[in-house]
Amino acid sequence: MPRIPTALVRKAHAIDAFLPALLAPCRDMHAAQNELRWLREHVDKVAKARRARGDVLAKGALLQKLVKQRASGKPLQYLLGTEYFGNLVIGCRPGVLIPRADTAASITHLVGLLRNAQSIPPELRILDLCTGTGCIPLLVQHELYSARKDVDLRVLGVDISSKALKLSNDNLQRLRKGRNYVDRGKVQFIKADVLIDPFTDQMEGSMSLKAALNYKSQPPFWDILISNPPYISPSAYWKTTARSVRGFEPKLALVPPPTAKKNDTEQGDMFYPRLLEIARDVEAKVVLLEVADVEQALRVAQHARHLGIFDGVEIWREQPDASTEDAIEDDFAIVGNGNARSVLCWRGAGTLWLGKSATIPQEDDAQCLFRASECHFYGGAVRPGGSSHLDAQFDRKAFFGFPETPTLKR
Amino acid sequence: MLATPWICRSCLSRIARPLFRRHIRFQTTGAHTKSIPPALLTRARDIASAHQQLTDKLSDGFDTRAAKKLGEYSPIVNALGEWDKANESVTELTSLIHDSATDAELRSLASDDLSETRTQLAKASQSLITSLVPVHPFAHLPCLLEIRPGAGGSEAAIFAGDLFRMYQAFCNRNGFRTNLVKYENVNGTTEAGVPLSEAILEVENDNAYGVFRSEAGVHRVQRVPATETKGRTHTSAVSVHVLPSLQENSAAEQDFDDPESDYYIDLKEVKLEVMRASGAGGQHVNKTESAVRLTHIPTNTVVSMQDSRSQHKNKEKAWALLRARIAQSRREKREEEMANMRRSVIGVAKMGRGDKVRTYNWGQQRVTDHRSGTTVHDLDDVMEGGQTLENVMESVRGWLMERDVEALIADDDGTK
């Protein structure tokens, strides 16, 4: 990191004595000035609340303490206790990942597509895995209910961390105050470990997602699956993450847990195969997964295609709503502006909800499942859409009872 | 002989001057038009006949557009009727007085009545003119007051702060709801008491643009600044921009989608830039940067907002500001075209941005508005946003209306 010029430090000091300290984490005069202003506003707010309770507060001392903490790199969001996510205010606490603006942009864009959809089921079920602060379920609810009155929502957030669950419930309570639509539909949070395979022997500790859904008497099928899982590989964690992220945000939410026999990239991608399997098991029609960069996005998109259950896969950048010409890479459309940020998959009815035209002819779900298992058999060597011998037999005889075509030699 | 052997010069000169100074008014602002310009009168008559036609049409069947037009015309027609009546009685009374056949008693009665009828006539013609002058298309909107220091360095910045407080006090006193959109002092913070570098105040009441329209322009200050050590008087300038503001709940919301409206902006023509951390983004960084910059590509208008921590709020604020600025520039352009057309007909002193509109002189404790020619001497009351400021603003509004009337007549002459 380049050193901050002395002239800049001196200039900052001339404006405000607290500014030079804030230059260290902000690296930039404008950002430092803004942060100082927000810290001041926060201190004023705290002092006012204390005064209302008949208490006094030394404003200068509190500000000094906060600036000192910020200078050490502690994220401003933890100091102020809130972060803006879309137009919601989400509470933040150490131990839980701070919501990112990029995530909000993808969610807003997705809900924007759903808003215009004609044929949405009367109860739309949305599953959010690795929910953290609960920002995604809350934003989805806020955005959809402010636009559509005819849909009931059922949103479930899942996380492994009890700290995150506590915070997400607090955030739900906080937003419930002074809003009238929260009583419609349901937002809930449960604890489960997404990575545990439900068919292996149950170990001590957390439950698998399937077990947790049963245990909490949640429905087994969901329409939309959203997830912002840990996606940073161990080497990228040391190389690319910002210092305040590394020093203060939970590693649990950033890097998948270490496993033997996996290289660096594979470990970064560890969550995605499992998430896509869950999407298949809960019969999700639309899947939105956040990713780190364009390489990971392409790997995830390839994997989704190999799975063979989706009618279309698309990659979104940081600003998916920006009107730019769509790029095509490896047959995947890349939408928007900025770094590649998420992968969107859809199938069946989801095609209509998103207003997409089906790229692959619609197939029966059972058939897709069959093909997917076939892919597994041959180690993914058989591409979906390519007609293997088994496939053709399955098509005509077992399911549809089509007359045999004369060209087909048996 | 005098008791004293000599008289001092100052006493002598005092004797030479009159005891009370006569007040001579060199410039008059209250030029009430007793008679209506013929062009305006024919216009009123045209409207009256159109009104009659519309009434006939409406008696046959209902038509929304015709009914709306009728509603617009009826105050003019009423005012014209009143003016006709007053005019007729004046001519009747005059003829009665001048007729030699009238007896003396009747004549004295008539002359008593005449003065009263004359004032009635003046009133009627005034109201006829007012009803004929078109209302400013944005007058019903709330407005944005933008205050920025001009020439004069830190003194200008100090005076900008004074002006800002003056308008705030004025709004408080007159019950205008205000909202501070942006406040930045020379250090780039929002702390009060430091010279101002830019302030944007939104007046949320309806009709606020009509009230504050008169304030736009360069305000000049002449005083010994607080920063001056040698006691010299400085002259500095502060520019005040007044823009009609469009909020979501205002009446003109539907205009956003109407391509004819000044506030219409094609979304494709605006580039939205979000300040982002360079590099990986996503979970790798937790930036607090929430600044938003909008660029309107055809006019190259740039608006950036970074006040709030919420990117969403910054975006909303930036859009409101961009719409206001673009609408203003479009309107100015249109007005410029119209003014160019009129300039050949009459010498309208177009109120440009470059000319100063008002002077605040501390040494003489006076405020002079250069457009209406009004001078008031209660400077403190003006700076506190009191009644005196209201008087000055009222005089400017009157002046603006007169300009509009002149322009209207010029238009009529031009079309003939």
Automatic annotation (TrEMBL), chain A:
InterPro entries named in the record: DNA_methylase_N6_adenine_CS (IPR002052), N5-glutamine_MTase (IPR050320), SAM-dependent_MTases_sf (IPR029063)
Molecular functions per Gene Ontology: methyltransferase activity; nucleic acid binding
Any one Gene Ontology cellular component term annotated for this protein: mitochondrion
Domain of life the protein comes from: Eukaryota
Keywords: Methyltransferase, Transferase
Gene3D superfamilies: Vaccinia Virus protein VP39
GO biological process: methylation
Matching CDD domains: AdoMet_MTases
PANTHER family, alphabetized: HEMK METHYLTRANSFERASE (PTHR18895), MTRF1L RELEASE FACTOR GLUTAMINE METHYLTRANSFERASE (PTHR18895:SF74)
Protein name per its UniProtKB record: S-adenosyl-L-methionine-dependent methyltransferase
Organism of this sequence: Clathrospora elynae
UniProtKB/TrEMBL annotation, chain B:
Alphabetic keyword roster: Methylation, Protein biosynthesis
A Pfam entry, by short name: RF-1
Highest taxon above the source species: Eukaryota
GO cellular component: mitochondrion
UniProt keyword Flavoprotein present: no
Stretches assigned to the Prokaryotic-type class I peptide chain release factors domain: 276-292
InterPro entries the record matches: PCRF, Pep_chain_release_fac_I, Pep_chain_release_fac_I_sf, Prokaryotic/Mito_RF
Molecular function GO labels: translation release factor activity
GO BP: mitochondrial translation
Family the UniProt entry places it in: Belongs to the prokaryotic/mitochondrial release factor family.
Name assigned to this protein: Release factor
